[in-house]
Amino acid sequence: YGMAAGQGLGFVGDLLYTGGGALAATGAGAIPGGLLMGAGAIAKAPRAAQKATNARKPRRSGQTGDERTMSFDPKTGEPVPLGRSKEDTARLKNEEKRIRSEMQAREAAGEAPFPELADRYPHPGEPFYKLKTPKDPGAGAYLAKGDSAESRVFQKRRAEIIQDMRDAGYEPYFPPGERRNADVGFYPDAETTQALARPAKDVTAQQWVDAFQTPEARGRLQQAIAKSDEVGGGDRWYHMGQLQDEYLRALGPEEGARRFQEDFARQMAATTGGADPTANFLTSMYANFLRGTGSPFPQASHEAPFPIGGRYVGGNLEMADQVMRGERTLNAADQPKRHNFMRNFLGDESVSTIDEQMMGGMYPGRNLAAPPGDSYFAIEGLLNEAGGSRAQDRAWHGFKVLKDAEKGKPPQLGKPMVEHVNESIERTSRLTGVPKEEVVRRWINRTMPAYGTAGLLAAGGLTLGGIQAQQPQGLLPDS
Predict the structure, then answer these.
(1) Of 200, 363, 384, 468, whose CB count within 10 A is highest?
(2) Model-level pTM?
(3) What's the CA gap between 11 and 39, in Å, rounded?
(4) DSSP class of residue 156?
(5) Which helix or strand (DSSP H or E) is residue 206 part of?
(6) Residue, of 133 and 114, whose pLDDT is higher
(7) How far apart are CA 389 and CA 380, in angstroms?
(8) How far apart are alpha carbons 233 and 460 in whole angstroms?
(9) CB 13 within 8 A of CB 37
(10) What is the pLDDT of residues 53-79, one digit of tens each?
(11) How far is the CA of 195 from the CAs of 319, 338, 376, in angstroms?
């Protein structure tokens, strides 16, 4: 960049991107608006007519000892280097070798690989800039979560444990075949989405009913339920009575019932945006851990430690924090999906959770990720006719099986929520050396991390994921 080709005008400086899409150089020279300024003279840039998108392609930084490609931060307009420097990468690899060696020595002595992570999460790495859209460099870069040497070693060892669980199996803490509903008697609720998540005018309500309670939608719903029953495993997805029992035994009937609602059902509903069930559970447990240990919530998604993640992890954690502090409620009128999701986990089978998968299955080709406007009650009414949540979990599974069949994929058994919890208990115990019973007790006390697949789908199992897959309204998405 020391010479403008064909012009003989020199300039020195770092590249940055201007709002108008032109390259600029700071220092002794600049290219504002496509003009080259240097040595007191102004001359047309040789390629001033090139398209703005091409002008904003990432460039090499030109920094001494740092050959990283440059982009820009769209929030500030400042130039930023993409990725890590060579020095940082080398330092990370050396630290990773040291930590792995220490872990292997512990395991050789018969200890758990990461006993220290029974009391804290892995340290987050330094964030670094990545392109927002690789196919559109002109969109700029965002600050992404970086992995630390500790989290790298942890991820690899965890992956080995996951594979061993798949190959050799494991003894589940909660027998899935014995799963049953939570006792909803602890949670009387005067609110219903049928009463509150509907238009005030009867004529508008009828229009929604006519639009969504159609014979075609009923037929697709019944077909999906039948397909799930044929394949198996899609029923009783929400049944978490075994976990509720643990809270009741540890804290007593009144406090245990309250905390099961507050820590599990409500937190799952608060952190479900764009997350599969395991990532949903891990994020909810992380929020509980922060509260139990008096730790501050991260202010940006890249500050969250491994394995906390997901499309909208920043918004989900913000929602969890606000719900904990009483600043937001998951009420039937304003948050019908989250409200019903919570109620289903509490054992209420009279309400149904309508998510992106359900909308796509019942109303294909309409590109509806959620019930539009105040139509939730009408679509839920269709499910309630079929059996409430007992129909919804089977229909979700059935729609997934049917969609997979169109892609030539074989049908997969359903995977209830209790299995996701079981897997997390097993992994957390193996990684930290804490017995499974103690893992559950410390989770109830909000003093221990939870480890899982961080958004990866377990092999051979199908997940009822994507519930409320839309970004939480009014909250920031994951960077």
Answers:
(1) 468
(2) 0.79
(3) 8
(4) H
(5) helix 202-212
(6) 114
(7) 10
(8) 12
(9) no
(10) 343 444 444 344 457 888 998 889 899
(11) 25, 16, 11
